[in-house]
Write a structure and sequence with these properties.
heterodimer, A: 495 residues, 5-stranded antiparallel beta sheet, B: 369 residues, two-stranded antiparallel ribbon, 14 helices
Chain lengths: 495, 369
């Protein structure tokens, strides 16, 4: 603790030496009431200069009294700024200046004042790109943590919405806030989140992905154990289920913990559309999940080992299309899958204008030319294309990458041991999924360990009036979500 | 305690189903048909009595020593040195039996699907996946079975339904041609399968709801019996007298399935499903072996010996029999007595001694008190 000294010039010297070669930190000295020396320090571009001029500098400089002003009167009478705070420590001053808040020091005072007039250019609230919906709120998180907090507060207005803040990153000094609803969240979970976040010691945090890798349970799993979202409504619904939301300054992606496998395959819109279509789409997604994982490997297994499973006509047409193909099915599948992944990756990274060119190249050259030249069979192109479509139907990007990764070992297993290999692969995945946990919650819950009541949010999307309980493992301290007998009925209220 | 995880009684019931059925479904119809002829569907019902009895015995032993498995309480019941000797017999017994199961699996896969693949590859791929589950502990095995087994049980019923049109009920008759004797004789081999229910005694101490252990143990015996009867009925009505001469009647039955002239020859899929069941079976035996060895050696953690034992299991799989004929002969003759003596004889003797000991203590207590 380096306390402020009574003499302004000493304080000034300390701060100036801290901020040498930082021309963006401005030291503005002025006199209060023509007599007392004062110093205003702010960072250019991060402070709202007009407001400072209007509400800080002009009232103080135009003060007539020659009496030595004390901090309390300045705070109470002179500064017409809502967010002001006295401090006594130079380190604190350095931190405030770096994060944009102007700092005022006054001669013969042991305290300084931070003025909450930080302001910088921020992105407006836009529709999230990665999770778009047909029906549902269109606001998305931004890069500014205060905006993100306010977005969540707009959804959950209860004073029970609590948050704790900490700073991570020795150089980046990134603000991290975790939010929860008191009375719903499990206190043990909260302790765990707190401890894991506090253990992080890193030089800089630029995205919530950094935090995610530091606090997840099983770092060697291909499956994401912490959900990320750009949507305030998804974060709010997780809060209501007793989960903890972790916001990181500087990124629109917030983390949600704990996470189960099934929540990776749920889109927010499932809950906004009517429940029947929600259920159907959910099942469509499960089927597509299996297709994305297993279709190429099953194709390889059947072509290599189990031709008898195909009806004769189908087998003949496949054999005909494969006549000229020089590769065994396994190699063909691996080559095509890698090609597809490459096109996909190129499409993401390229500027939008060129992106369409890639799809033309992909479709024409790889689709058409490869088949007509006889290097790849047409059914294989279909299989790969369908697999690609299926993997796009998984709503969470990090879940679909897990499936994409696992597809390759499955193809190899199928190429070496046929359906047996696929089965062993599936078993290995099931075993692995059963071993991992996310903040103490089994990853496959509520399927295994089985919770009959909660299965209705997994197998179907139950209508809202029937989801009476919160998930037990996250919200057990306050399980009741809504009272019984809310099923709509036109006769209600008339009896 | 070595195992910190807890499972529910329901999970245990799910675990036990494929543990008995996986190899049973393949071999049982043919083996019982040899002696029971057209009454083979009765044999599982007789054999299931052994199952009910053994669950009861295991539960009584569990009530006497609620926190211990057989490896631990045999030392308490028999004394230190005889208990250790029983322990070593059990460890080697489970090595042998698990080796046989691994071999049955390997023989089946290489005999029907992967003719060219070396047996060691088939063994070791399965052992690797199983060891992942064993490494995760009882909780992981319980959860895996909870996910896999219901699906398998339902799909097995679907197979039966799809075969309905090919079934010929005339094959039932003449019913009880030779009285009950032949079906009883046929049940002897089956009893060895049902006696495997002694495995529940290794899970009882780790149940979350201990009072339901007996109930769910009995329910799983019943469901195993139901599925065995179903299998035997299916192969009897489909193949009649031929059943006895087939090695894997269920697999042959799967070839009869044809849906809409498009989905035919589903035996590969049936094989894949069966592999899932066998996975549970091998994992359960493997886990009991690892847990038992660790308890016998008084280790502090069983995870260190998972991989070495897995390696030994591959070897035991190779050593257990020179070929399928010898294995099948062993299973349908000697094995019944071998398995029954250890899986039924041992626990019954243990229970009797334990009860006598308890009586004596009570009498002593009443004399001194």
């Amino acid at each position: 603790m380096d306390l402020l000294s009574l003499h302004l010039f000493e304080n000034e010297a300390v701060l100036k030496s801290t901020f040498t070669d930082c021309p963006d930190v401005i030291f503005r000295s002025f006199l209060i009431g023509n007599k007392t020396k004062a110093l205003l320090i702010y960072t250019e571009g991060l402070a709202n200069i007009e407001e400072i001029d209007k509400h800080v500098l002009s009232p103080l400089m135009q003060q007539e009294t020659t009496r030595l002003p004390d901090i309390q009167t300045i705070l109470e009478q002179k500064l017409s700024v809502s967010k002001v705070k006295p401090f006594t420590d130079t380190k604190h001053a350095v931190q405030e200046i770096s994060s944009g808040n102007p700092v005022m020091l006054i001669d013969q005072q042991l305290e300084g004042i931070t003025i909450g007039l930080a302001k910088w250019e921020k992105r407006a609230i836009e529709e999230p790109i990665a999770e778009s919906v047909v029906r549902g709120p269109r606001d998305g998180f931004t890069e500014t943590i205060s905006v993100n907090i306010s977005l969540l507060r707009r959804k959950i207005k209860s004073p029970n919405l609590k948050m704790k803040s900490l700073v991570v990153g020795r150089y980046s000094q990134t603000q991290i806030v975790y939010m929860y609803i008191e009375g719903i969240v499990d206190p043990h979970l909260l302790d765990e989140v707190h401890n894991r976040l506090n253990r992080i010691d890193i030089d800089g945090v630029l995205e919530s992905g950094y935090i995610e890798e530091f606090i997840e349970d099983d770092p060697y799993s291909p499956f994401p154990q912490i959900l990320n979202t750009e949507r305030p409504d998804v974060a709010a619904s997780s809060l209501l289920e007793g989960r903890v939301v972790i916001l990181v300054d500087g990124t629109p992606f917030v983390l949600i913990a704990p996470t189960t496998l099934y929540s990776l395959f749920q889109a927010s819109e499932d809950y906004y559309q009517r429940f029947m279509i929600g259920t159907l789409i959910r099942w469509l997604r499960y089927i597509f999940l299996l297709i994305a994982l297993l279709l190429p490997s099953t194709y390889v297994a059947i072509l290599t080992y189990h031709q008898e499973m195909l009806p004769t006509t189908l087998l003949l047409s496949m054999a005909k299309s494969r006549e000229q193909v020089p590769f065994p099915a396994l190699i063909e599948a691996v080559i095509m899958e890698i090609t597809f992944e490459a096109i996909r990756e190129a499409g993401i990274r390229l500027p939008k204008q060129i992106g369409s060119a890639i799809s033309i190249v992909g479709a024409l050259v790889i689709g058409q030319a490869a088949v007509s030249s006889g290097l790849v069979s047409a059914p294989m192109v279909m299989v790969v294309a369908f697999t690609g479509v299926a993997s796009f139907s998984i709503p969470r990007y990090n879940a679909s990458t897990a499936i994409r990764m696992l597809r390759f070992p499955m193809i190899v297993a199928a190429g070496t041991l046929g359906l047996l290999g696929i089965m062993l692969g599936i078993l290995a995945i099931i075993v692995h999924l059963n071993t991992i946990r996310s903040f103490g919650v089994p990853y496959l819950s509520p399927m295994a360990p089985m919770k009959g009541e909660e299965m209705k949010d997994v197998l179907i999307r139950a209508p809202w009036w029937s989801i009476k309980k919160r998930p037990r493992l996250t919200g057990y301290s306050n399980t009741n979500r809504q009272p019984e007998r809310q099923k709509p009925n036109p006769l209600k209220g008339t009896e | 305690m070595l195992e910190r995880g807890k499972i529910s009684a329901l999970q245990m019931a799910f675990m036990m189903n494929p543990t008995i059925l996986a190899t049973g479904l393949l071999l049982v119809p043919a083996i019982t048909a040899k002696t029971a002829k057209q009454d083979l569907w009765l044999s599982p019902i007789w054999a299931s009595f052994i199952g009910f009895m053994i669950v009861f015995v295991a539960y009584r032993l569990h009530r006497l020593y609620p926190k211990e498995t057989m490896f631990e309480y045999s030392e308490q019941i028999l004394g230190k040195i005889p208990g250790k000797i029983v322990g070593v017999i059990l460890v080697f017994y489970y090595f042998h039996v698990t080796g046989i199961i691994v071999r049955e699996y390997g023989e089946f896969v290489s005999g029907t699907f992967l003719h060219q693949t070396p047996m060691v590859v088939i063994f070791s791929t399965m052992i690797i996946v199983s060891s992942m589950a064993v490494y995760g502990g009882l909780e992981v095995i319980g959860r895996c079975s909870e996910m896999i087994v219901p699906v398998l049980l339902v799909l097995y019923l679907v197979i039966f339904v799809m075969l309905l049109k090919d079934l010929d009920t005339k094959n039932f008759f003449p019913m009880l041609e030779n009285g009950l004797g032949s079906s009883l004789k046929g049940s002897v081999v089956l009893q060895s399968w049902f006696s495997e229910f002694i495995l529940v005694s290794f899970f009882f101490p780790y149940l979350r709801d201990q009072d339901k252990g007996m109930k769910w143990g009995m329910i799983s015996v019943f469901s195993v019996m139901f599925y065995m009867v179903l299998t035997n009925v299916m192969s009897l009505l489909l193949f009649g007298k031929l059943t006895a001469s087939l090695t894997y009647p269920v697999m042959v039955a799967a070839r009869y399935i044809s849906i809409a002239d498009f989905l035919a020859h589903l035996e590969s899929i049936v094989m894949a499903l069966w592999v899932a069941g066998t996975f549970i079976k091998i994992t359960v035996f493997y886990y009991v072996l690892v847990l038992g060895t660790a308890q016998w050696l008084k280790l502090t953690d069983f995870r260190t010996i998972v991989l070495p034992i897995g390696f030994l299991l591959i070897l035991f799989g190779i050593w257990s029999a020179p070929n399928l004929q010898v294995l099948s002969h062993f299973l349908s003759t000697t094995a019944a007595f071998y398995l029954l003596s250890i899986q039924v004889g041992f626990p019954v003797i243990l229970l009797i001694i334990a009860l006598i000991k308890k009586k004596r203590q009570q009498m002593k207590g009443s004399i001194t008190g």
